[in-house]
């Protein structure tokens, strides 16, 4: 089986955790790693992934080897292991566009090289590095930059995994262009490996399966990494609220009073994320059931678990001659796929695709 050559658009916290997960797998290809849902997916092990390049705009990252870029001050995800074979992958400059707006502009200074970078440079680099899959992990709300990367991948014939809630796979005109070009596009918005959305939607599915009538729900999320800093700006977080609402609707929550989204930045939490959720429902004889959840997770490793599946799903779909948005693996991997499913159906469709 060949390697999967991956490039990272955005060398931030999710990318750092994913690169470490790949390094652990490369060091022990036949070991079952905690949190790795599928040891092989479409025949690929996580150890078969090679990170061959990254793109960023931060002056503390651009021009450095990947392993050094992840020592930048804004990185708050835990370092569990050194990067192995991929430690020297280059971090290339990309056009800034709307990548650093709002609070991010106060913590990241754009590299001079990013000012000269063009979409054509990005497409050319994807071809030169023979990239199979581009993982887009840019700040939420950076819709122009995210669309620029999608267009560059389309030009280069590179499959895309969209970790962000900005609509690509869910935008019919974008997914049609990928389908017509014979290029795979998976998205949108990572559904973290064991995160708020998966727990919340599994709980909703359980209550509905027992015939309860949902009345109201909320899901409040706080954290202290740059993702939460960015999402604290109301001008940047709209797509995250929409994406979480899409996930709850796919779980069966229609016409219910529900709120779910990022709820604040608490700097000292760093990469720890807290989720507080409640579901209230009507049961037998109109009696009330109310369930509260508190979830504490490290945010970025939780994203890495999904990216580990998504890059292999994108390459597998490409190998199978699929193109555009691919339905089967997407509802388990993303909050806002074109067609969402309840958790158990999403898992069954994914495992069927993965085998
Ligand atoms: N568990 C999770 O962490 C999780 C779950 C679901 C979705 N997501 C989404 O994944 C995305 C990435 O999250 P993160 O925590 O890694 O964010 P981050 O802030 O750590 O990283 C974003 C990176 O993008 C870079 N960047 C900004 N503009 C750029 C441009 N024009 N070109 C190239 N790089 C640019 C930044 O410098 C930074 O390195 C976000 O949209 C987030 O909402 C994360």
UniProtKB/TrEMBL annotation:
Pfam families: Inos-1-P_synth. Keywords: Signal. GO terms for biological process: inositol biosynthetic process. Gene3D superfamilies: Dihydrodipicolinate Reductase, domain 2 (3.30.360.10), NAD(P)-binding Rossmann-like Domain (3.40.50.720). Residues 195-300 form the Myo-inositol-1-phosphate synthase GAPDH-like domain. Residues 1-19 form the signal peptide. One of its GO terms (molecular function) is inositol-3-phosphate synthase activity. The keyword Electron transport does not apply. The gene is ino1. It comes from Streptomyces subrutilus. This is Inositol-3-phosphate synthase. It comes from the Bacteria. Transmembrane segments: none annotated.
């Amino acid at each position: 089986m060949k390697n999967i050559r991956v490039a990272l658009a955005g060398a931030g916290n999710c990318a750092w955790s994913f690169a470490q997960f790949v390094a652990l797998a490369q060091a022990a290809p036949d070991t079952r790693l905690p949190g790795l849902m599928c040891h092989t997916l479409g025949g690929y092990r996580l150890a078969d992934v090679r990170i061959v390049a990254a793109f960023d705009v931060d002056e503390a990252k651009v021009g450095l080897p990947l392993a050094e870029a992840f020592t930048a001050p804004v990185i708050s995800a835990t370092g569990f292991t050194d990067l192995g074979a991929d430690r020297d992958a280059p971090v290339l400059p990309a056009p800034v566009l709307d990548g650093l707006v709002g609070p991010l502009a106060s913590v990241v200074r754009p590299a001079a090289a990013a000012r000269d970078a063009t979409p054509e440079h990005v497409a050319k680099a994807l071809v030169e590095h023979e990239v199979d899959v581009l993982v887009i992990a840019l700040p939420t709300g950076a819709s122009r930059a995210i669309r620029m990367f999608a267009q560059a991948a389309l030009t280069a014939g590179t499959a895309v995994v969209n970790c962000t809630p900005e609509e690509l796979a869910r935008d019919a005109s974008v997914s049609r262009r990928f389908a017509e070009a014979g290029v795979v596009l998976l998205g949108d918005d990572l559904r973290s490996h064991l995160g708020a959305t998966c727990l919340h939607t599994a709980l909703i599915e359980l209550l509905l399966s027992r015939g309860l009538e949902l009345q109201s729900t909320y899901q409040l999320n706080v954290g202290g990494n740059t993702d939460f800093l960015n999402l604290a700006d109301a001008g940047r977080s709209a797509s995250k609220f929409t994406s979480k609402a899409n996930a709850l609707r796919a779980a069966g929550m229609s016409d219910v009073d529900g709120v779910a989204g990022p709820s604040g930045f608490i700097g000292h939490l760093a990469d720890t994320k807290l989720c507080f959720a409640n579901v209230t429902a009507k049961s037998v004889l109109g009696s009330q059931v109310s369930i509260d959840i508190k979830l504490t997770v490290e945010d970025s490793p939780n994203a890495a678990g999904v990216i580990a599946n998504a890059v292999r799903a994108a390459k597998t779909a490409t190998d199978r001659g699929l193109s555009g948005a691919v339905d089967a693996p997407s509802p388990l991997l993303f909050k806002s796929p074109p067609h969402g499913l309840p958790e158990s159906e999403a898992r069954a469709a994914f495992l069927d695709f993965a085998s």
